[in-house]
Design goal:
single chain; alpha/beta; about 210 residues
Length: about 210
């Protein structure tokens, strides 16, 4: 880890921590923000009504900057599993169609799809990494029966990247919905929503 990055974390020099897929180190700035928020609630009478709106709006704008998105397209939700459940509740899938998930996927992006498949007589297809990379494994698993492709942009167990542009293009070819759980890499790896939207849907000038 470079010195200018190491200084952002409270990690002693004699410690090498690699288990970020389980519980990543916390930035010093995040710790400071958490302490500030906890201290703020000590005197709740100082919190004004407008704070309930201005603070979330600031958060939406900052999050949008991280992934090059429009703040109006950002929603604040309790958890990843909550967001995945919303997607599952609004995407159609019929009997005999397939919902594609990855092998050893994080539970937040699995259980809602398993329930959706069960409720609609669809098949939950688990893609295993038997190819040279996850992207090829996914592309080779997509067929005309594929209704929903739900993937992260990197696998949480080891950080293997998935080419969302290629997967998105294949999804369009078969008319499948693409759901991306970017929580594993957002802020640590470049995610450009405007670029993806332009590639997926042919939209320019974003």
């Amino acid at each position: 880890m470079k010195n200018n990055v190491a200084g952002l974390f409270d990690i002693p020099q004699n410690v090498t921590y690699l288990n970020c897929a389980s519980l990543s180190p916390q930035l010093k700035s995040v710790t400071e923000a958490g302490l500030w928020a906890a201290q703020r609630k000590v005197h709740p009478w100082q919190i004004q009504s407008e704070d309930w709106f201005t603070d979330p709006e600031k958060l939406r704008q900052l999050a949008a900057r991280v992934i090059n998105a429009d703040a109006d397209g950002m929603a604040i939700i309790p958890s990843v599993s909550y967001g995945i459940s919303i997607a599952a509740a609004n995407l159609p899938v019929g009997k005999g169609q397939q919902i594609l998930v990855l092998d050893k996927e994080y539970p937040s992006n699995y259980y809602a799809w398993a329930e959706l498949a069960k409720a609609n007589g669809a098949e939950l297809l688990t893609v295993e990494k038997r190819e040279t990379n996850w992207t090829n494994a996914i592309l080779n698993s997509i067929t005309e029966r594929t209704a929903i492709i739900t993937v992260p942009n990197c696998h949480w167990t080891n950080g293997d990247l998935i080419d969302l542009v290629k997967v998105g293009e294949k999804a369009r070819q078969v008319g499948a919905a693409l759901v991306v759980d970017a929580s594993q890499a957002m802020g640590a790896y470049s995610i450009d929503i405007a670029c993806y939207t332009a590639r997926f849907f042919g939209i320019r000038g974003l």
